[in-house]
Design goal:
Elements: E1 2-4, E2 6-9, E3 12-20, H1 24-27, H2 40-68, H3 74-100, H4 104-120, H5 125-128, H6 131-146, E4 160-164, H7 169-176, E5 182-185, H8 193-200, E6 205-207, H9 212-215, E7 221-225, E8 230-233, H10 237-259, E9 277-279, H11 286-290, E10 296-300, H12 314-328, E11 333-336, H13 347-350, H14 364-370, H15 372-379, E12 386-387, H16 398-411
Parallel strand pairs: 3-4, 4-5, 5-6, 9-10, 10-11, 11-12
Antiparallel strand pairs: 1-8, 2-6, 3-7, 7-8
Helix pairs in contact: 2-3, 2-6, 3-4, 3-6, 4-6, 7-8, 14-15
């Protein structure tokens, strides 16, 4: 049987299906009730307890992930984001309980629903898929509020291919460290954190297959083609032969690309070209050395905080930029100020938006001129220099020049 989906992480894998079924909404019946003022502190204690258990659990998953990956691996950053998100959610839940006099389960559901709705307002698929992380953290906290132990998948045999309706990011991190060779799911996009971790670990993943957990049973043999998005269930010998042929061709191309990385970058007529990296996250700086690049031509700083629930401080950015510059040695580094607004709004700005989404129409430099505090923080300690997001021909750049003049004496100061 051939099932067609869309690839969210390239590669080829064959193995045995393990159907991963977790649906908290069906497994848990959470109470929904109003409370008296005298009960508010008790409900606050309950969310504090859920936060403590969730944070401890996430920390353990992070420690387990660190033992099998580098410190800069995306899975580590994702778990750190989830820990910060859990703290922010708990604070908002407390505020909701105190304002609406509802129990903690009702308040948590309301906060999660509101965050998901606000993320779904964004135009960018990348940022819309951050709502998956909100649901992931919310689900973990719900389990601890319920008093039931968090459901755990039994140890997986070698060569397991996880089949799921949806694999949430923290689940993916846990499973990827247990020998999973591929993922097949109904939901999930290429910009989800699950896909990002799969890509970084070179685990093929295919999504978009309707009712996949009903069409594939545990124990079935699968062939996963992460190039075309095809999944073959219980393959015939000829299908296996053709699959192996495509797999060998893919691996040959991948090796060829890898072998060419350290070759000089010159044109056929001998002109040398300098290639610079375009990066948005600290872990991506490793690609400079891995691919023999001449430095970083654009560091898109907004990606440091697109999942943050707190405004970035001057100290945090100073520390980050210093670390990046030190890692590059004498190679150049160009830092761009925050390109926020429009479809790029981190949680600390999204939660300030009205229900209508007013404010999503501003972007880049125009948004920076509204959020001048962020622009000031973003350029005031940059050592190597900076560039700004572009603006349209209808927009007068003199306002930006005025800000540059105000901060110019700080821009090139040493970190």
């Amino acid at each position: 049987m051939l099932l067609n989906g869309r690839t969210i992480s390239p590669g080829y894998a064959k193995g045995v299906a393990v159907v991963y079924e977790v649906d908290i909404e069906r497994k848990l019946e959470l109470p929904d009730r109003t409370i008296k003022q005298s009960e508010v502190e008790l409900e606050w204690e309950r969310i504090d307890d859920a936060l403590e258990h969730s944070s401890r659990e996430l920390q353990q998953i992070e420690e387990d992930a660190k033992s099998g990956t580098s410190q800069s691996h995306p899975s580590i950053a994702i778990l750190s984001v989830h820990s910060a998100m859990a703290n922010e959610i708990a604070t908002l839940v407390k505020d909701h309980i105190g304002a609406e006099f509802v129990n903690v389960e009702t308040a948590l559901e309301s906060v999660i629903r509101d965050w998901v709705k606000r993320f779904q307002l964004l135009d960018s698929e990348y940022f819309r898929q951050r709502e998956q992380d909100v649901r992931d953290v919310g689900r973990r906290m719900k389990w601890h509020l319920s008093g039931y132990p968090l459901w755990k998948q039994a140890p997986l045999p070698p060569g397991s291919i996880v089949v799921a309706d949806e694999l949430l990011p923290s689940e993916a991190v846990e499973l990827f460290n247990s020998g999973v060779v591929a993922i097949v799911s109904e939901q999930g996009g290429e910009f989800s954190h699950t896909a990002i971790v799969a890509q970084s670990m070179k685990i093929p993943a295919v999504s978009g297959i309707r009712k996949v957990t009903l069409r594939i049973k545990s124990g079935m043999q699968l062939l996963v083609d992460g190039e075309s998005g095809a999944v073959i269930v219980e393959p015939e010998p000829t299908e296996t032969y053709n699959f192996e042929k495509r797999k060998r061709a893919y691996e040959k191309r991948a090796k060829s690309v890898g072998d060419s990385v350290n070759l000089p970058c010159v044109t056929r007529d001998g002109v040398e070209i300098t290639l610079l990296a375009n990066v948005g996250r600290p872990e991506e700086f490793a690609c400079v050395g891995e691919h023999n690049l001449g430095g970083v031509g654009l560091f898109r700083t907004e990606f440091l905080y697109l999942e943050s629930h707190k405004r970035p401080s001057l100290e945090a950015q100073t520390e980050m930029y210093a670390k990046m510059a030190k890692g590059l040695g004498d190679l150049p580094l160009v830092i761009r100020t925050f390109d926020l607004g429009g479809d790029k709004l981190p949680p600390f700005l999204v939660t300030d938006l009205p229900e209508s989404g007013v404010g999503l129409n501003l972007r880049g430099l125009r948004y920076s001129l509204i959020e001048q505090e962020l622009l000031h923080i973003g350029v005031s300690k940059t050592r190597i220099g900076f560039v700004q997001p572009s603006f349209s021909r209808h927009y007068d750049p003199h306002d930006s020049q005025g800000l540059q003049k105000r901060y110019f004496d700080l821009i090139f100061l040493s970190l």
